[in-house]
């Protein structure tokens, strides 16, 4: 009898343990999509293994999602470190990973040193103005901005601000035109030749025209939006709006006709048809276009900043190339890696927004 009771208790405990494991696996499966969006999908197999799932199956998933990418990165670093010193340039040998990392650290330390100088400048200015105020000489109080050189991190922020401005302008133009193109075959036929003509145009061709137009129209530049930044942003706009326009038109044109007929039967007004039927159905392709446009804009920005001499990563690369010091090549490679990493993060950000606002991305 005692043995029977013990066996029953063990069975109950086993069932409870299995239920808990299944609940944990269900929770992990729910968040695995979110982890994939942010490039952290390899955490799901680790969590499933910890919850008691099949180590063999999750080990294969972990190998595919984490170990193989790490092997690829390590192999790239090994090849880079091996063959880079063999290539001699006018600035010396191609720097390896260690030298490039050293320059990345130096750029960050330069940023901290420049921030300390700025803080010291503002502190001295505050002390001086406080003394003038105490002496009743308020008319002599002046506040000036620190005019030190922009640091590497400052230039990254400038590039991000420029590409964001150009991307927003491109989105505001491309989405309405894409919707009209998708709804009207006549409008699409009128716009399509212009798309085919202007879509392949290089930013290097747009830049002189944009520079002259902005110089003629933008007569009172501000410190927040200098003329060089506007030139770069408009160039980004002209080169990046086409993927959004094309994908928006395709998404609107491919809406289920039965869905549109339901809207007509219900006699929905145009605005509600647009916001309740057209845009939600076309949203996945719109976001695909936005992701492509942001990627194109980020690539275009570097060339635009080089020629427009707008402070940013493009100008940083050009200045280091012109500088020709022994550290310049390593700093250029730092900028190249920075551009690539930021481009990846921007794409992940757009993918996260797509997953949050579209049904297809969440399936």
Automatic annotation (TrEMBL):
PANTHER family: ALKANE SULFONATE ABC TRANSPORTER-RELATED, MEMBRANE SUBUNIT, NITRATE IMPORT PERMEASE PROTEIN NRTB. This is Nitrate/nitrite transport system permease protein. It is found in: Cell membrane. SUPFAM superfamilies: MetI-like. Pfam families: BPD_transp_1. Belongs to the binding-protein-dependent transport system permease family. It comes from Breoghania corrubedonensis. Keywords: Cell membrane, Membrane, Transmembrane, Transmembrane helix, Transport. It is a multi-pass membrane protein. Residues 156-350 form the ABC transmembrane type-1 domain. GO terms for biological process: transmembrane transport. One of its GO terms (cellular component) is plasma membrane. It comes from the Bacteria. The chain crosses the membrane at residues 66-87, 162-180, 201-219, 231-256, 277-308, 328-346.
């Amino acid at each position: 009898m005692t043995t029977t009771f013990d066996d029953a208790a063990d069975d109950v405990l086993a069932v409870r343990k299995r239920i808990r494991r299944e609940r944990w696996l269900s929770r992990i499966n729910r968040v695995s999509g979110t982890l994939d969006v942010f490039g952290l999908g390899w955490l799901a197999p680790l969590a499933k293994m910890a919850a008691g799932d099949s180590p063999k199956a999750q080990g294969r998933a972990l190998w595919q999602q984490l170990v193989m990418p790490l092997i690829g990165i390590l192999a790239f670093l090994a090849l880079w470190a091996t063959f880079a010193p063999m290539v001699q340039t006018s600035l010396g040998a191609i720097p390896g990973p260690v030298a490039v990392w050293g320059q990345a650290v130096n750029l960050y330390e330069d940023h901290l040193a420049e921030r300390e100088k700025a803080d010291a400048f503002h502190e001295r200015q505050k002390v001086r103005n406080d003394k003038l105020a105490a002496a009743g000489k308020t008319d002599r109080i002046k506040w000036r901005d620190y005019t030190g050189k922009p640091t590497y991190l400052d230039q990254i922020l400038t590039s991000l601000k420029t590409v964001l401005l150009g991307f927003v302008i491109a989105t505001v133009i491309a989405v309405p035109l894409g919707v009209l193109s998708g709804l009207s075959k006549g409008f699409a036929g009128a716009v399509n030749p212009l798309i085919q003509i202007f879509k392949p145009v290089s930013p290097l061709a747009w830049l002189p025209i944009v520079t002259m137009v902005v110089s003629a129209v933008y007569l009172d530049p501000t410190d927040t939006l200098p003329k060089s930044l506007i030139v770069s942003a408009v160039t980004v706009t002209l080169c990046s709006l086409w993927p959004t326009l094309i994908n928006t038109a395709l998404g609107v044109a491919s809406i289920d006709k039965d869905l549109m007929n339901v809207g007509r039967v219900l006699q929905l007004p145009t605005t509600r048809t647009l916001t309740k039927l057209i845009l939600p159905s076309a949203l996945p392709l719109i976001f695909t276009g936005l992701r492509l446009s942001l990627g194109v804009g980020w690539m275009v920005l570097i060339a635009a900043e080089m020629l427009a001499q707008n402070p940013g990563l493009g100008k940083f690369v050009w200045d280091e190339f012109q500088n020709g010091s022994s550290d310049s090549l390593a700093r250029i490679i730092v900028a190249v890696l920075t551009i690539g990493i930021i481009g990846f993060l921007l794409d992940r950000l757009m993918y996260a927004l797509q997953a949050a606002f579209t049904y297809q991305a969440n399936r």
